[in-house]
Amino acid sequence: MASQTQPQDGGASDGMAGLRLSTDSNDRDTNDEPTNDVEKLQLELERTRAEKDVLADQYNGLLAKLTTMRNTLGNKLREDAEELDRREQLIQQFTTQNEELNVSVTTLRDELVLASNESAKLSEELSLIRSRAVEESAHEASIREGQILELQNELEICRTERDEWERVAQQESMAADEARSLLDSARREWEIEEAQREKDAQDLAMEKEKSANLQSVLEDFQAAKDAEIRSALADYELQILQTTQSLAEFKSRALSAEAELSEVGSNAGRLAEVEQELKDKAALIAKLRHENVIANEHLTEALRRLRKNASDENVDRRLVTNVILSYLTTARGDSKRFEMLSLLASILSWSDAERETAGLQKQSAAAKQQAPLGRKSSAAMGGRPSPLEVPKQEESESFSKLWVEFLLKESTQGTPEPSSAATPRQPTNPSSPSGNWSPVGTRSPVMSRLPSLSSGNASSRASPGRDRSSTTGH
Questions:
Q1: With contact defined as beta carbons under 8 Å apart, do 394 and 471 qualify?
Q2: Dihedral of the CA atoms 159, 160, 164, 166 (nearest 10)?
Q3: Cβ(219)–Cβ(212) under 8 Å?
Q4: Where do the DSSP E strands lie in 120-222?
Q5: Core-most of 244, 249, 281, 388, by most CB within 10 Å?
């Protein structure tokens, strides 16, 4: 700053000296030319004043610059001092770090020496490992060459097998073409079978409808069977009552025999016979009760199946067709024609006029209007059947057996039934006290009208007009 202000002060003094010289010269000129000198002096004074103002402005500008430079340099010097202190601190830190690094370098040099020694050892081991690896690689190379030869042989074999497989593939392709043709034909056959299956499904639906069509016929048959069952039960009750009376009579005889035995004491043989007769009657009563239970079971099962397979208004066309064909193919004098005609009347629900036209009933026959499918026996009124009613009962029995077996065939086709409920048919024991009674294991005429619950698939496929038991003429 001092060096910069000194030249500026020197320039100002030089300017002042120049002004003095100019004023001195002007004074000398004024003496020579008094008038012009005054003007010149005034002009020179004005010029000098102007220069003075200029110099004053320059001086002020220089002074301001000098002040600014002094302030700037002071701040800069303070910053430099602070920077110097900071750098000294850094130098101290760097010196400390350098010492620490020197210690670390010494330690690392020691470690480097140890590492070089260990590296030498590892180099020796590496050379040994390399030599071993070379030997092993040579051995493996020889093994690999042998394996390559084997693989080449296998490759040749595979090529041969590939050619063989290609030939087999061509054969299989030909077989596949043949199989496709067979598949197409099988598909066509399957379509035909599918159409047949749909047709069978339709036939099955028709068969279901036909099985449902039996209801109307079963309703009529059920009404007739209910009447027959009531008649049979009345017969059984009457027979049981008679047997009970006979038993009471035998008991009274036994008591009288015992009295006679106590009185006489010599008629022991007669008493033994009476006791044996009482035992026989008791066994007969037990058999009758057992047969009554079996009959009730048969009736309950028949009613249940009849209600289960019943329908309202439908008529089985196949049933009617079979009955009509059987009617036409049966001889004119055969009693089955009347049964078939009665069956048609029941199936088709003929009116009284139609029955009279067909010759099934007379106009004055009111009893036939109540039970068109059968006739009640006189036992239902509390008496035994007369000799004139025996053919009618046998006729109703034959017709009922035929009708029930046909209905069971149509409704339970393919359905197994429990064998324990079936009772084999046997002729009536002639040694029984009454001809209408049957021992255990046999069925009375009323029992023979009930359906056989053990009918299988073989009997279910028979025609409705086939005779299943011996019948008497109408």
A1: yes
A2: 20
A3: no
A4: none
A5: 281
- Which has the higher per-residue pLDDT, 82 or 302? 82
Q: Region 467-473: what's the mean pLDDT?
A: 38
Measured at the alpha carbon of residue 401, what is the angle toward residues 332 and 353, in degrees to the nearest 5? 55
> Helix (H, G, I), strand (E, B), or coil: what is residue 371?
coil
- 419 class by beta-carbon count within 10 Å (0-12 exposed, 13-18 middle, 19+ buried): exposed
Count of CB atoms within 10 A of residue 406's CB? 24
363 or 337, higher pLDDT: 337
Judged by DSSP in three states, 177 sits in helix
**CA–CA gap between residue 80 and residue 74 (Å, rounded):** 10
Q: Provide DSSP, 227-292.
A: HHHHHHHHHHHHHHHHHHHHHHHHHHHHHHHHHHHHHHS--HHHHHHHHHHHHHHHHHHHHHHHHH
For the whole model, what pTM was predicted? 0.20
Whole-number Å distance between alpha carbons of 74 and 69? 8
Residue matched to tokens 């020889």: 142
Given a contact cutoff of 8 angstroms between Cβ atoms, the answer to whether 468 and 399 are in contact is: no
